[in-house]
Specification:
The chain is built from 1 helix and 12 strands; from the N terminus they run βββββββββαβββ. It has about 130 residues and is mainly beta. Strand 1 and strand 2 form a beta hairpin.
Length: about 130
């Protein structure tokens, strides 16, 4: 498009491809609660991370403690078995966030991936994760 000597070129931007659930290191970006309509960030030095392996296992860093367990991957659900976790005591913001992450990632959880974001939801709580860039 040209007008008064100014050239404007329009190009179609391709959407970002969805990240792959398994094999991706996911970092917790935010915690949302639909009941209270609140959104918060992990508020810790090192945010929780999650990595789902092809073989049905998950590795976790909860914000203070680390661990993992078994996970079954469905089309729109993840079903977490009991989690193994270290038992370090940490300051309250870390323990509070860790408790929320552990509560959401227990049993059957809905998930959706859009681009580089993974949302895991159980009840009124949602965790939004971002795929680590390599």
């Amino acid at each position: 498009l040209e007008r008064d000597g100014t050239v404007i070129a329009l190009t179609e931007q391709q959407p970002e491809p969805d990240a792959t659930l398994t094999g991706t290191m996911w970092t917790l970006e935010s915690i949302a609660n639909l009941d209270t309509q609140s959104v918060s960030t992990p508020g810790v030095d090192k945010a929780p991370t999650m990595k789902v392996a092809d073989g049905g296992e998950v590795e976790m860093f909860f914000g203070c403690n680390s661990g993992g367990g078994d996970v079954q991957v469905g089309d729109t659900t993840l079903t977490f078995g009991p989690m193994r976790m270290t038992r370090m005591a940490c300051p309250d913001p870390q323990m509070q966030g860790e408790s929320t992450v552990a509560k959401v990632l227990d049993g059957e959880v809905e998930y959706a991936i859009e681009g580089s974001r993974l949302t895991t939801t159980k009840g009124s709580d949602s965790l939004v994760w971002t795929a680590a860039t390599s």
